[in-house]
Amino acid sequence: MSFIQSIFNLLRFHRRNWKAVALCIFAATVFWFFNALNKSYTTNINLPLVFDYDQENYIAVRPLPEAVRFNVTGVGWNLFRRSAGLKIPPLVVPLPQPSEVKKIVGSTLPALVLNQPEGFAINFVLTDTLHVAIEPKSSKWITLQIDTPTLLFKGGYGLISEVQISPDSVFIEGPVKLINSLPAKVDLKLDARNIDEDFSDDVEVKFLNDELIKRNPPTVSVSFRVDRYIEVEDSVKLEIINPPKNAWTVIGEKKLAFTAAVPQSFQKSFSVDSLRALVDLKNITKGEKKILPKIEGLPPYSRVVKLDSISVKF
């Protein structure tokens, strides 16, 4: 007990003793640490990777590998920098003909990165294979359009004008296979739903694999007029045109009931007297047929909602 007591007495001798002991421990640790970092070690590390190719005329269609795992030998300082997250210059892999390279076998990397990296000696490559997908760039102009049946109007509302797109074409650039697969005309998709008023907005030009295609401009202006549709029920007299020569026709109905949806703004111009239901018998063959008449004279953007076919017999 007296020995242990004497140690405690020594440590309690003066507060300055604690500072001296701490400084000694710190100095010894620093000395050991710096001495250890000056030695050579062998270990496995991931090194950053970049590919050197003509990015003006080629584009990667899939993300390129960003790192490769090596077994290396190097001075402790360099290994410490890597483990501490300090920035290390990446390995540069040259690709003079990038579209012809689909994969790089790991064992061939040391020859490609000769004299790289600085401060490390590569023993062998742990990464088996690097997969690369790079294509030549291509470009062209495409015309934009909107498939109007896909517009999502609120019930009872619809289109009453032409769809205006400005500009109506864009210049696109991307991988040659993807660019060549796109048609000369591409449909724009509107996110708007339950449209019940005139539309005017900027719409983004989107494609599949959108991240690979550069668009100029990326957005266009789209506008069109919208109105409420009113359903009108009435009947109209049938009119036969182009009857076959020397043929006697029998038509089951002389007047035809119909239902039409007419834009509210065109209601004043709607008149049943201006309508006619045409039955065109041109090129019709003998026998009994069911034919759907065509109603003409409706106001602009009106549409037939309900109309029965008629029987025609020769």
In short:
With 314 residues, this protein is of the alpha+beta class. The protein contains five helices and 23 strands. Helices cover 16% and strands 42% of the residues.
Describe the overall structure.
The chain is α+β, with helices and mostly antiparallel strands and 314 residues long. It folds into four domains: 36 residues; 93 residues; 88 residues, YbbR-like domain (RNA Polymerase Alpha Subunit, Chain A, domain 2, Beta Complex), CATH 2.170.120; 84 residues, Beta Complex (RNA Polymerase Alpha Subunit, Chain A, domain 2). It has five helices and 23 strands. Strands 9, 16, 18, 19, 21 and 22 form a six-stranded mixed β-sheet that branches. Strands 2, 8, 11, 12 and 14 form a five-stranded mixed β-sheet that branches. The radius of gyration is 40 Å and the shape is elongated.
